Amino acid sequence: MTGERGPFNQPIYKHTDLRELMTFGGQINFKRFGRLLANSRDKICDGWQICVSDTKAPAKIYHLVQVRAASAPQPVTAVAGTQKEPF
User: Fold this and answer.
1) 55 and 30 within one domain
2) What's the pLDDT tens digit per position in 16-37?
3) What is the pLDDT of residues 74-87, one digit of tens each?
4) Residue 27 needs a FRET pair 20 to 30 A away by CA distance; which of 17, 35, 64, 81 works?
5) Same domain? 31 vs 69
6) Are the C-beta atoms of residues 50 and 63 closer than 8 Å to each other?
7) Number of domains in the chain
8) What is the pTM (predicted TM-score) of this model?
9) Nearest CA to 62 among 73, 47, 49, 77?
């Protein structure tokens, strides 16, 4: 959320396209969004790929990875020197 309010005092979201994918019937549906991520994992689209982290955590951790031509996927970081950016 950006902290700003729109018409009728509704919140304005920074990534509306992502929010639309996460919501179903006006509510955030984590199970449905998780299935969407699981079905999209390892597929390459516009040079990007959704990968699952190799952890022993009970929940899966997804990462957005930029794929370069003829090379292994490289993790995308938010700031140089940080760990992979969780999706």
Assistant:
1) no
2) 888 888 898 889 998 998 898 8
3) 555 444 433 444 54
4) 64
5) no
6) yes
7) 2
8) 0.57
9) 49
